[in-house]
Amino acid sequence: MSEINVVPYIDVMLVLLVIFMATAPLLNQGVEVDLPEAPSEPLSNEQDDPLVVSVKDDGAIFVNIGMRRADDQGSRVTIFSLEDQAAKVIGARPDIAVYVRADASLAYGEVVKVMTVLQRAGAASVGLITDPPDLAAEA
Question: Which residues 6+ apart lie within 8 Å of 82 measured at CB?
Fold first, then answer.
């Protein structure tokens, strides 16, 4: 017999394809944050590798360093270790852009705490990331 039977290989590959298609949506990483809506200018893409601190509605804090995709989760930190980690990044790159993504339902005081910690770490200015308002809903 000089021919190779490839039917079992195709079957295995189709099963693997189905498994990957079923599990891919479950692997969606990221910090789910319901951003407040505000009319503001979009961020420029000229700034490379910004420092983005995301705060979820339950108070969990995540630090994204140089991650341009919104679905990247980054590393979870506490409010106490945030200053040390941010100070290391800002010390290495004093011109880095620092942004805070906070859930709309989060208390204002929690956002202020995070911004204060970032300023103590050496951030010259801290920007807030918002979603653009839904103009169709306003009409």
Answer: 53, 61, 63, 114, 117, 118, 121
- Give the SS3 label for residue 85: helix
Q: Is the dihedral of CA 42, 68, 106, 29 positive or negative?
A: positive
Q: Is residue 61 part of a domain?
A: yes
- d(CA 25, CA 33) in angstroms, rounded, equals 18
How many distinct structural domains can be found in the chain? 1
CATH of the domain at 133: 3.30.420.270
Backbone dihedral region for residue 59 (phi beyond 0: left; psi -120 to 50: alpha; all else: beta): left
pLDDT tens digits along 45-97 = 555 678 888 888 888 888 887 555 555 667 888 888 888 888 988 898 888 88
Q: Are the C-beta atoms of 63 and 100 separated by less than 8 Å?
A: no
Question: Does some domain include residue 15?
Answer: no
CB 100 within 8 A of CB 114: yes
C-alpha distance across the termini of the chain, in Å:
73
